[in-house]
Each structure stands twice: as structure tokens, then as C-alpha cells.
Amino acid sequence: QVQFVESGGGLVQPGGSLRLSCAASGFAFNLFNMAWYRQPPGQQRELVASISHSSDNTKYADSVKGRFAIARDNAENTVYLQMNSLKPEDTAVYYCNAGYWSPQYSNWGQGTQVTVSS
Questions:
Q1: Which of 3, 45, 79, 98 could form a disulfide with 32 if both were Cys (CB 3.0 to 4.6 A apart)?
Q2: What is the CA radius of gyration of the chain?
């Protein structure tokens, strides 16, 4: 079955960096666009960044442009999110899923918690 396993979150000070990883399985990873989402406390889940299946195209939410970078390794069925210049408002649980504009699958992983605080 389709499975997503996110990792790499943690507590970081404002201005710091983190690199998130998402290992995907159960579908033809190299044929699907992928995306990172986040859900801040008490808020709806939102799209953060997307990448096409061949890495030719990426897009980012305005709030993270210039600070976050999405990448993927099709040989490892893994998608990454490099997060730099982190702000307290980046605090959220981060998830990945297939799809470019909206989630492809209804099942989600456990997510990885990112907390930005001094």
C-alpha cells in the first residue's frame, strides 16, 4: 500500500536550517509529482512546495520562496525539503504526498514536527 515516512524535523532557533526527508513506497515514485505540506497548530494543512516527476519544475508557497528548496532522488524514492532562514511561523507538522497541485493519496504519513523557537 502507499506509504509516506517523513523525518528530519526538530527544534531549531530562528534563522536556522533543517533538511526534511520523505521516503515513499507502494507506487511508481518516478512517475509522480511530489509535494510537501505543513499543518501549523490549529490550522489547516497547506501546500508548501511541489516538484515534478523529473525535477524539471518546482513551485513554492509565497511564504517560503527563497528560503526552502524541494528536491528528489528517484533512485531512492525520496523527496527532500531543505529549509533555511527558518521563522517561528514555519512551526508545523510537515507531510509529503504525491501530486503537484493537490494530494494524490488520501493516506498520509505521521509527519515530522518542526518547531522554530528561541
A1: 98
A2: 13
Quick: pLDDT tens for 9-55: 999 999 999 999 999 999 999 999 999 999 999 999 999 999 999 99
pLDDT score for 47: 97
CB within 8 A of 46, min separation 6: which ones?
37, 38, 39, 40, 61
